[in-house]
Amino acid sequence: MPCWYYDKKELRETPSILDGVTYETERRYRKEGARFIMECGTKMGLGHNTMATGVVYFHRFYMFHSFKSFPRYVTACCCLFLAGKVEETPKKCRDIIKTARGILNDNYFYSFGDDPKEEVMTLERILLQTIKFDLQVEHPYTFLLKYAKCFKGDQPKLQKMVQMAWNFVNDSLSTVVCLQWEPEIIAVALIHLASKLSKFTVLDWLGRQPQHQRWWDMFVSNVTMEILEDICHQVLDLYQSTQKEGQEPNSPPQKPPSRADSPTTTNIKSLASGDCPAATAQPSGNGGIIGINAELNNIQTIKSLAQAVPVAVVSIPPPSDGLPLPTPSAVGGAPLPPPSNLNSNAANYHMYHAPPPPPPPVVPMPPYAANAWTQQPPPPTHYTTTAPPPPMPPNMGPGSAGGGPTGYYNAGRQQQQQQQQQRYQ
Amino acid sequence: MAHMSHMLPQASTTSGVSSGSSSRTMSLMEKQKYIEDYDFPYCDESSKYEKVAKIGQGTFGEVFKAREKKSNKKFVAMKKVLMDNEKEGFPITALREIRILQLLKHENVVNLIEICRTKATVHNGYRSTFYLVFDFCEHDLAGLLSNMNVKFSLGEIKKVMQQLLNGLYYIHSNKILHRDMKAANVLITKHGILKLADFGLARAFSIPKNDCKNRYTNRVVTLWYRPPELLLGDRNYGPPVDMWGAGCIMAEMWTRSPIMQGNTEQQQLTFISQLCGSFTPDVWPGVEELELYKSIELPKNQKRRVKERLRPYVKDPTGCDLLDKLLTLDPKKRIDADTALNHDFFWTDPMPSDLSKMLSQHLQSMFEYLAQPRRSNQMRNYHQQLTTMNQKPQDNSMIDRVW
Fold first, then answer.
1. In this structure, are A243 and A282 located in the same domain?
2. Residues A162 and A89 in one domain
3. Compositional bias of type Low complexity: which residue ranges (chain A) (predicted)?
4. Topology of domain B139-402, per CATH?
């Protein structure tokens, strides 16, 4: 079987990058493709394993082909179609396309051509050859649950922690961690992250041996803190980039509330400590290590977490003992999903959730490309009667957090309408 | 290659996107060239093999014997994936078989080497044909049994059954059901190593929970090897379906042809009850709850006569006893692979003995597909049988004729 794991250098020399797509744009395409698969799959009632398998196929596919050659949403549909069959949850190609049609705006749907089904079928052969028929994919979910079964401690807190870790696994699919590490390691890292953020420290576990310093020593060996941190940061960066992407030149500056003295920050800092033992109870004691070990951008990431945290824990009420678990209210001025979305997140924790909504984009970044083969703006004729579409928001808007009915792929359409209305007022 | 054009940016049907962006995108010809020239790093071209002969017809395609060009010595079996009439792309059955074969690596399970493709060219409309490439096995059990010059000693029969049960034990431990046990799907190399083959109907199974029963299709297993629970419409079945097939194959080692050759499901059930006795809740608690139990008319007051009727062929008492345990009506009571391997049959003199010496006397490959029909042609067309139900039921004389 082929090796599906790549080092950082290889991830900077992908076919897309060699084809002139920037690193950042490729990451955005991957994120959009992954989220699209999750949204499509959720709408069709597919399970998390099928969606995750589709996303992994998607990431692997673009280690061999350029986003310029293969439009991402057609590929995404094809990956979901194949994953459905492989995971014994088949969906008709026609139905997947129908669902995609409901999610994507017209511009993106053009990449499906006149005969979208044939398009997906043709791509399936290319996909199968590209992934060498290596169909079986394992996901961190399996290991997350396996590990969690061994943890001892307060059950409600454990439950909350696992739920948060599960959300992080969902989000990790939008990154390339599945191209870098085995699902076991990703599960360990994201449990570790959730454990830090939810203040549930795994102090004891079933099957513990004297030589086990940390709980994961029982399951994986030779995993350094650097690896775990790198995985956590990639997931956390999703929330940070949300802010970045949301902050367009002309949009009002979004000042993150100062977290300098926030217990949350302290808590997060402990994550970065290289020698953090499982038994660490007072994270503040490790706070200094970050300055030594972590890179500057890591610090930024960690700080940005102040805004990301509410997303990760939206479904988790603060513990009754008054521990400073980050809650929406703790974040002050950061934009938060309305409470109703929080509830829907709680009810649908298996679904991917939206990072905090960015401020409404006012002026477009790169305009929508009519197809993914090119990043060129569509010809102006297309927009003679409407305002140019805004940039693809990196996540769903406030009204659609938690997998709500309006996908962000349609945001362009909505924005157009809004702007039109404004113009006629 | 009309469909490839759809991958190109299309001019908008509504507002007519101009071709301004086309300079950056691939033209149709460039796109076709891309596919044609793309050197899929993991998927070799089938032209690395040279077809020698057609040796069979699998569940979803033809099977060829082929020679590896590079070594000019190594032989493989190439199973073509039939893609015609597939509305849903690459067949889910083929995906299942590939996934299962990639999972199963065992001496007694056929080895999948790789998946190959024909080059996408203008001649095939840029649609590759795919082949599953296996290690070549010289014989299949149906082909060997149909050749009367091939004689199995008791020790050799034990070796065949031991390997077959070993393979079943392995796949069942991996939560896989074969679902198409029959002599033609049991391959044997010239060195006497048995390989379970054709996982085209196989699937993963789960242990059913109390309130969450499985709902698998019961339209599996060649009729003659199909166990009674499937014939009665059970959809929550498991490994015992393969054990029934193992029993049918074991008996066939002596009878040399399938022991119950029904033309219809009704007739197959009749043959089974004539051999194994009437289906009653007494011997098979829960049988009355199966879907077709009440709607199908079954012979009443039939005595179980498995040992009695097989002894003339089998003679060996431990062999008869194992057959009796394999051909048990109630799937819950049917012996499993592990227990069967511990049966006295395999641990009494003569012990299982190597097949390679006997097989070395036969230089010709023996496949059921190539053999003279050793029985009615139904075997090869069993899929038609599944749908042809209005055939005239035959009387029991068939059993006597076959045995």
1. yes
2. no
3. 414-425
4. Transferase(Phosphotransferase); domain 1 (1.10.510)
**Residues A395, A400, A403, A409: is their CA dihedral positive or negative?**
negative
Q: Which residues of chain B have pLDDT under 50?
A: 1-25, 27, 375-403
A152 close to B (CB below 8 A): no
Facing B6 at nearest CB: one of A118, A124, A128: A118
Which residues does chain A have within 8 Å of residue B120's beta carbon, measured at their own beta carbons? 125
- Bridge-based pairing of strands B139-140 and B186-188 is antiparallel
> With contacts defined as CB-CB under 8 Å, which chain B residues touch A135?
95, 98-99, 102
* pLDDT computed for residue A79 by the predictor: 98
Any idea where the domains of chain B sit in the sequence?
50-135, 139-402
**Cβ atoms A269, A302 nearer than 8 A:** yes
Tokens of B305: 């006569």
Is there a binding annotation on residue B119?
no
Higher pLDDT, residue B37 or A252: B37
CB B50 within 8 A of CB B131: no
Q: Which residues of B touch A378 (CB under 8 A)?
A: 17, 21
Asked if residue B387 lies in contact with residue B165, where contact means CB atoms within 8 angstroms, the answer is: no
What is the domain count for chain A? 2
pLDDT at residue B211 in the model: 63
A221: pLDDT confidence band, cut at 50, 70 and 90?
confident
| Structure confidence by residue, pLDDT tens digits, B351-378 | 999 999 999 888 777 777 766 555 444 4
- Give A89-147 pLDDT, tens digit per residue: 999 999 999 999 999 988 888 888 888 888 898 889 889 999 989 999 999 999 999 99
Domain co-membership, A145 together with A124: no
Domain made up of B50-135: CATH architecture: 2-Layer Sandwich (3.30)
User: Do the chains contact at B7 and A122, CB–CB below 8 Å?
Assistant: yes
Q: Sorting pLDDT into bands at 50, 70 and 90, what band is A242?
A: low
Residues A30, A15: contact at Cβ < 8 Å? Answer: no
Cβ atoms of B237 and B230 closer than 8 Å: yes
Q: Answer for the pair B282, B303: CB distance below 8 angstroms, yes or no.
A: no
Any chain B CB within 8 A of the CB of A129? yes
Chain mean pLDDT for chain A: 68
How many angstroms separate the CA of residue B53 from the nearest CA in chain A?
A: 26
Whether residues A160 and A298 fall in one domain: yes
pLDDT digits (tens, 9 = 90+) for A363-384: 333 333 333 333 333 333 333 3
Q: Which domain holds residue A25?
A: 8-130
Q: How many angstroms away from the CA of B99 is the closest CA of chain A?
A: 6
CA distance B287 to B293: 7
Q: Are A193 and A165 in contact (CB under 8 A)?
A: yes
Read off φ and ψ for residue B313, nearest 5 degrees: -90, -45
The DSSP H or E segment spanning B116 is strand B112-117
Minimal CA separation from A357 to chain B, in Å? 32
Pairwise CA distance, residues A172 & A166, whole Å: 10
